[in-house]
Amino acid sequence: MLGYSCLIKMSDTNQQILISVPNANTTLVLGILSIISCICYGLPGLIFALIALWISKYGERKYREQPGIYTLSSYNNLIAGKTCAYIGLFFSSLYLLIILIYLLMFGVGIFTALQMEDILRQLQEMQE
User: Are strands 15-19 and 6-10 parallel, antiparallel or unpaired?
Assistant: First the structure.
């Protein structure tokens, strides 16, 4: 079982091998990275969050199909990763929106200053 951690659950009559939910740890890592990298102009955090949410769907679907073969701790990691991804998505989107508004205001300011310069030049030409 390459890539899966296993836990043997012992009961009185049989043994059951529990495996971790697919992509649970990857989702958690990407969710945490989305929160950490949301201050990098929003774009890396947005990418990490969207990837984490996308790959978590597979693990969640597999867990819903057969919840008895997966460990509860790995499912909790999947849910925590999704929660972190949603938080990172929110803050990254907010930061990206603030940057875009700032750039828009800066562009409008420069455009207005150039127009005012043209108007002043025309007024000077009219006075001469």
Answer: antiparallel
Residue 2 is which amino acid? L
SS (H, E, C) the chain: CCCCCEEEEECCCCEEEEECCCCHHHHHHHHHHHHHHHHCCCHHHHHHHHHHHHHHHHHHHHHHHCHHHECHHHHHHHHHHHHHHHHHHHHHHHHHHHHHHHHHHHHHHHHHHHHHHHHHHHHHHHHC
Q: How confident is the model over 46-87, as pLDDT tens digits?
A: 999 999 999 999 999 999 998 888 898 999 999 999 999 999
pTM of the model: 0.75
